[in-house]
């Protein structure tokens, strides 16, 4: 399903005049709801441009109408296991915060408090309808991206570290913030207390265009966990209030506001580039150019995404409004896969247990049907998925482990088996298993090949009931083999970690490839790959930090603060060691400020050449 894009035109504010209105909502067909935004061409006022969206809300639209039409219907999907992302986009002062957060009066409450109210209400209903068998818990995390750094809004500002929280890419393209607080909320009152406090931690300031302008992108994540007797289902609603783009010719922003503004505009520019790249079908989408786009992961995220485009009706916003309309119309083309989150079974579904017990006995030669060992991954969506769920055969999932399990003399009772969850980091969530992989629960009817190999001449015996008996010597041999493998893997990992930046080749495949050796090799390769990705991420983060310093330096220079510009250039230098232009700028600035020359060459660790080229490529002609 595509991203749903809806536009909302805000009403006139005090001091704004009817005669200045140029943006209007329209309908494609008489009597139908509005789906078109009309705005005159900037070159020819008599000619109108029309932009079509999924829905268009005019100036008279109340908070309640917007919520009931756009957000309330998504609650059902959220509780079916789909993630929901809502984000407000638009120029500064167009009503994004009003739409998402709103005012304190009941009628003014925005999408976020209403969403939470809906979540608690539905959660209570589910618990009641299930006679308490299912419980629903709600946990919040809330953070802001300020000057391209991530800060936890649920923690007091004095606990912030200057560099903010790091991001980590997870399997399946998701980006998560490391070290974020998560607070449980039991009811709306809990939420409101937390939310109001957290919003006081958000950076806002007065600009000429908005008396309470958000200087950061704020991301609220509402995690809903439904725990039933058999399974746990988790889904997340994300509500994002983006900072607004600013035309600094109109803001009269001072130094600090300009630096913020540059970070806001840059991230929004990257977002528009991502939207363009996705809608063109480019293979490379520049998500990594800003933290906001990495977190938003538009087109990579799963579930349902709604973009609320906030518009001012005024002529003074003409070009900015056109630009927002252009970006948003392209966003409509972005496909988001509606994939429900994995259900984690606490134990086998009752029906399967009954079937297993009745079906030929555990020790018999008949192979047991594969069961959902770890989690079920459903690519169907919405109601169709729910309807199809009953008819679908239970999917099978394997549990991968490197460890040899002590082989039971009789199979454990299925009803009490603990289900191990496959490590999410090791398996992409968007890989839909198409064929059942072998379960590693010991199958009494087969002697594992690894065991046969390790047992050597000490043959294990298969009893007439199909159970395996092992001699002490065989167990000893297995333990020794496992210890040797673990030590070898650890050594290999240490060597790889030592040479992580040089991207070591994967360890050579074992001469004799038993199933277990292959699993160990695969494990080592995955770990090496993860280390490589993390190293790449660290490099990328460092580079974007460097670029941020350069950006700040340029802003300071433009505003005439050469001392601050020098400080920013010098801070950027370690990220671009030996960069000739940068070194030249620092020398010139130091000269102008009457400071002694600096030993800028000390940062050139011999790797400057490659980075120099890189920066020039990205910045279009150097710093
Ligand atoms: N639909 C609306 N009804 C009434 N007032 C509105 C509406 N939309 C916006 N406003 C008012 O317009 C002003 C600017 O709105 P808001 O702060 O939400 O803009 P914003 O897009 O979040 O700006 P920024 O990006 O600078 O944070 C506020 O005073 C807000 O109350």
TrEMBL record:
Binding site for ATP: 90-97
Source organism, top-level taxon: Eukaryota
Keywords: ATP-binding, Motor protein, Nucleotide-binding
Database matches in Pfam families: Kinesin (PF00225)
Biased composition (Basic and acidic residues): 600-617
SMART domains associated with the record: KISc (SM00129)
Identification of the protein by name: Kinesin family protein
